[in-house]
Amino acid sequence: MHDLRRLAGAALACAAFATPLAAQLPDTAREIQTHLEFLGYQVTASDSNLTAVHGAKLDVLIQSYQGGVLMQSFVAVEQNREEALPTANLLNTGAAVARFYVDADGDLAIEAWMPGEYEKARFAAFLNAWDSDTLGQFRSYSDEVRQLVN
Hints:
By secondary structure, this protein is an alpha+beta fold. The chain has one domain: 2-Layer Sandwich (Yope Regulator, Chain: A). The chain is built from five helices and six strands. The chain has a six-stranded antiparallel β-sheet. Strand 5 and strand 6 form a beta hairpin. It is globular, with a radius of gyration of 14 Å. The N and C termini lie close together (about 10 Å).
């Protein structure tokens, strides 16, 4: 998991500069930041997103999107796009809120969208589902993920 976190951090740093021009902070960014900090994330805000870094979870970008909150994470992939697609598809099979795909840069992109504004209980449930989808899927398919990033 340590190698995966290192690669995710590097990809997330690059992705922060590649967000769409229309990206913006959610109106409830301060509440989201406080919630994430309570859970152990170190959160920084820019004009367009929140970047949340955690020692045991994937680093994430959070921004407003289509009347809700979009959470994204990126993992640098060592395989070429065609070799990585089957693993992305496999990770999608058991995911509830997240979708996994190989982006144009060849990274494993992970996204989840929560409709509406921040509400503490709903956001907590969303984060639990995100963790289950990301960390849970990575554990379930650890051999495939390891091949993807090594």
